[in-house]
Amino acid sequence: MLKELGADAPAQPVFRALTVTGRLANRRLATPRGERMKGGAVNERVQLLASRAGIPYVGGKKVRAHSLRAGPNTDMIAAGVPLRKRNRRGRWAAGSTTADTVYDRTLITPEDDPLSKVPLGGFKSPAQ
């Protein structure tokens, strides 16, 4: 879709602001931050796509834009990355426990996670 809109350059954000007619919003005068979609719009898009894919819930939790942060944090937990490094990578405050209290999905079993069947990096997933 971004290619069709002429906005598929590698340095441009994946989530882009659109007009109500589906065209790219005019961002000539926008700040670099204004180039991106607002958080609420990203959340709506993620929920719409999850619903269309038939997975509005993962492990009993509603899929939201913040779910995009939970996946990498959970993978880092599984890889033994300490909280301090996960806070830095997740852009949470130093000393914060948010990565462990909000974005930890390690207790979700592969049976409850339809995404566990998706291979990562060309390798078979543990659920396969």
Give the helix/strand layout:
Layout: H1 39-52, E1 57-58, E2 61-62, H2 67-78, H3 83-90, H4 98-101
Antiparallel strand pairs: 1-2
Give a written overview of the molecule:
The chain is mostly helical and 128 residues long. It has a domain at 56-117. It is built from four helices and two strands. The chain has helices at 39-52, 67-78, 83-90, 98-101, and strands at 57-58, 61-62. The chain has a two-stranded antiparallel sheet. The longest helix is centred in the middle third of the chain and has 14 residues, at 39-52. The protein starts with 38 loop residues before the first helix and ends in a 27-residue tail after the last helix. The relative contact order is 0.10. The mean pLDDT is 79.
Features:
30% helix; 4 helices; single chain; globular; two-stranded antiparallel ribbon; 2 strands; mainly alpha; 128 residues
